[in-house]
Amino acid sequence: MDGRSLLHHSDRVLAAIDANRSARSALVASWQRSCRLHQLDPAERRAPRRISDRELAEARQRLEPLIRSAQAALDQLFLAVGGVGCCVLLADREGIPLERRGAPGDDETFRQWGLWTGTVWSEESEGTNGIGTCLVERRTLTIHRDQHFHSRNTLLSCTTAPVHDHEGRLAGALDVSSCRADLTEGFVSLIATAAGDAARRIEAESLRLAYPKARIMLLPSADAGALIAVDGDDLVIGATRTARGALGLAAGPLDPFPAAEVLGGRERAGICLSDAERGALLRALASAGGNVSQAARRLGISRATMHRKMARLGIRRPH
After folding, report:
1. Which of 175, 201, 251, 277 is most buried, with most CB under 10 Å away?
2. Best-predicted range by mean pLDDT among 155-159, 180-184, 259-263?
3. pLDDT at 7 over 80
């Protein structure tokens, strides 16, 4: 972009900010934050700031569980978009990419643009951009070319989805960026869908890794990302951000509650003790292949006690 184009973009941004003081547009609201709150200049030509290798290593260590959860999703997303000149970035909540996928032939171009690990893409540092603005607004969005605040970033198209940890808290952002000028609106929409799906897969894997001994179950009649972790006592001990939204639960550690409340209807929440005991016996018998002695050992009771409980609860001895 030549100097005249840079100046034209800068003037357009400042004019939009002055003309839209109420910031009815989400884009102009972001431009206003960039200019007035963060005191940035859209004509600034300084390259994006980079953190040191030591700081990058420390940031990666802090986000290690999420990075581990993201590996397969990053690979799959890059397979979908890498062939058309896009790179994939996983950034922390400070807007710093910590993981990256890109084609070797495109690496030098993306490195020059700052689409690399260790570069700071917070809105505070870079103004309106995919990663930084997504983290502020906490929604999937696209910042396409001249929607960026800084004139020097107007050759980029960035589509970004927020990523939450296993406790439903904002942990970072998943970004697909391109320097191609021929990206159509339809293709950008497909990228947004792919990025959102990949973010939900990361959140699901994060829940699985956080609760390795729990059953991971999908909430009935809910979005595919609405997953809960259920322990051996049939208590819900964890939930993804999507599941928490469906259930009206806040982010953070959960107070365990019966899975029956959300899986079997709320009328099951008052299940009686005898029903719970019957269910435990039936599960033990099923896992023991109908062997009463083995089922009793699994439950930590004697064979005679097992038979008495079965008789009291009307459970027939398997043949």
Report:
1. 175
2. 155-159
3. no
Name the pLDDT band for 3 (thresholds 50, 70, 90). low
Q: Which CATH number fits domain 3-208: 3.30.450.40, 3.40.50.300, 3.50.50.60, 2.60.34.10?
A: 3.30.450.40
- Tell me where in the chain the CATH 3.30.450.40 domain(s) lie: 3-208
pLDDT score, position 67: 98
Predicted confidence (pLDDT) at residue 5 exceeds the cutoff of 70: no
Buried b (16+ CB within 10 A) or exposed e, 106-125: beeebeebbbbbbbbbbbbb
Query: Could you write out the DSSP letters of every residue in 50-85?
Result: B--HHHHHHHHHHTHHHHHHHHHHHHHHHHHHGGGT
pLDDT computed for residue 23 by the predictor: 57
- CATH code, residues 273-312: 1.10.10
Range list of H helices, the chain = 3-19, 26-32, 53-62, 64-81, 107-113, 123-126, 130-137, 185-210, 241-247, 260-263, 273-287, 292-299, 303-312
CATH 1.10.10 segments of the chain: 273-312
